[in-house]
Amino acid sequence: MTQQQPPPPSAAVTLESCHHCGELVPVGAFCGHCGSNLVDTSGGRSRTHAFAAAPHEQVARPVVISTLFPHLTRRHAQSFQLVLAAGILLVVALAALQLVAPATIAAAVVLPVLYLLYLYEVEVYQHEPVQVLLLTVVAGAALGVAFTLVTGTFTSASLNGTQQGVLVSAVLIPVIAQVLMVATPLLLLSHAHFDETLDGLTFGVATALGFTMATVIGGNWHLLTAPLVGGASSEDVLRILREGVLVAVVNASTTGLVTAALWLRVRRRSRRRFVSPWRGLQASVVVAFAVQIGLGLVSYYGRSLLAVVVAYAIVAPLLLIWLRVVLHFALLEEGAELEIGDATACPECHRMVPTMVFCPACGVARSASARQARPELPMPAAAEAPA
Amino acid sequence: MVQAPVIGFCGRCGAPFTAASGSFCGRCGNPVAAAPPVASGYTYPVAPPGSVPAMQHKLSRQRLWIFGAGAVIALVVIMTVVVVVVRPLGTTCHFSCSSQHGPPLVGNSLYKNDKFGYSVEYLAASTKVASSDANGVVLNVGQGSQISFTGTSGTDVDGALQSAFKGIDSNTFQDLQPVGPVRGAEIGNVPAKGTAYKGNFVPPNGGASGPVGAIVMAASFNNVTVVTVMFSGYSTDQANQPYGLAEGSSLDYPITLTHFPGSP
């Protein structure tokens, strides 16, 4: 098969001055330097109509794949979305066939398996897959097992449900779980290669999914070892979907929120254009723990499983949107000195555009594409010189 | 000293600028204030998919489906096999096996049912009457376990078991799955039939849910059927806690000391 050749780059790039950052940048719908919308001169600086990792989507849109799997291109994201939908259908089908144990297992592993495939596809781990997987998915699963064993030991002996009280059940246990999910990605924080906000997000999400998988399986062990075919009710389906999907999305979002904000803060890639205390590290930590405690309180005081599931179903999309807001502005924040590189194909829209921090045509952040597929930015002369 | 309001920041060096700063950044000279019209009429050619590095997926759509579905199905099958293999088969020991804690010696109390003539002995120190009516009694045992005794006339043990199981509050005791029959079941000295269950306990007044073990047993003697329903926190220590009832030994006491009317 003959490799198709890209069209030759244009001889000269027409420049215009961005009315948001003031830089001379290639003409286009978006500023290649700051990512602002150049078409809408009124409110285009924050371009909330075009999520920086997936410009075809609005920021305020609760989409699991483009939020938790941001390195995927639009076309590939659709495939992952279909596989995820098929996985959820499989869970419902197994539950409908009265196969409670297989349905619970399927619910627990669908998202982690999909995330492992995502990590393999986009190679976030670069040249160190073993280290990254050990410190994220595997460590998360191990901590989840330990967490389940420890909490299960001192919560299973009582039937009256009030032995631990609201402070332990709804506050302490969710907080400990969240701390454990954030803990191991921190070991990758100082790694020189993993310096982007989306690296932090990916490591946090991977750890949270491993942790949740282990806690779902461990927490339901007494049901898994019941007879294989049992009378599964609608409550079983609700419980399985809550634990396998909704809890996983919530845990992934809260953990990704904290780790992404942490990466942006510590790795100092911010250009400080959109600094806001509402999207900073402290705010992200507060939001993450508040959500975990809030849902812990709902689970503690909730009179019915349906009410708890509804609460999760409301919170999960809101949390996804909040995470997208933080990611969106983090991607707009990240960047380097103004450099305009050679024309290369944009990973998202496939147009031959000058290589910059943002695609001038579709506005996708360069750091939101897979590393191996992303064109290299030209290095500033000062950065090439040894310190 | 009153400072002019900041109206923006230089995109190059980040220095704030005000309306009085002019058209250029005071620090680096970058033009900042002007808002020129956006150029139009530009075009960027679309590269053919084969030449775009991002289109060179390690996982094509087909491979994604194969690996994704294959991995999920393989994990479900393997883990299902594992949980089936490690599933506790129940103990060969009688449910009323002697307690590890030794026989209680003091503090017995007696519940006497006048309608059907059966009676239940229990330890007042660790067991309290939660409620009672003409047909039976509910006892709170130990650290949160519960057992109920209900009498009916007749010999329909199976019917009593079914109605007792249906009477369990499914909001409080969710996902009850049968573990298996209670081998060698007895109520008092009367042979009984019974089934053990596992499920989730959701406190009706709020609180942390948790795994629970349950047993429903019934026996009939002298035209009186007594059915017992007991719940206790679930324990994985199958060797010492038959059928996973964490306080099985304490529950066993009133069952063993149940007296049917006319029984020896």
Features:
heterodimer; A: 387 residues; mainly alpha; 2 domains; two-stranded antiparallel ribbon; disordered C terminus; B: alpha+beta; Protein Transport Mog1p, Chain A; three-stranded antiparallel β-sheet; 3 helices
Please explain how this structure is put together:
The complex is a heterodimer of chains A (387) and B (264). Chain A is mostly helical and 387 residues long. Chain A has two domains: 1-47 and 336-387, no CATH class; 74-333, no CATH class. Chain A is built from eleven helices and four strands; from the N terminus they run ββααααααααααββα. Chain A has helices at 64-68, 74-96, 100-122, 129-155, 165-183, 197-219, 221-224, 234-266, 281-301, 305-333, 381-384; strands spanning 15-17, 24-26, 343-345, 352-354. In chain A, 56% of the residues are buried. With 264 residues, chain B is of the alpha+beta class. Helix content of chain B is 17%, strand content 32%. Chain B has helices at 61-85, 157-166, 248-256; strands at residues 6-9, 16-18, 108-112, 119-123, 127-132, 136-141, 145-153, 173-181, 186-187, 190-191, 193-201, 210-221, 224-233, 258-259. Chain B has a seven-stranded antiparallel beta sheet. A three-stranded antiparallel beta sheet of chain B has the order 3-4-14. In chain B, strands 1-2 form a two-stranded antiparallel sheet. Chain B is elongated and about 105 Å long. Chain B: Keywords: Membrane, Transmembrane, Transmembrane helix. Chain B: The chain crosses the membrane at residues 64-86. Chain B: This is Zinc ribbon domain-containing protein. Chain A: Keywords: Hydrolase, Membrane, Metalloprotease, Protease, Transmembrane, Transmembrane helix.
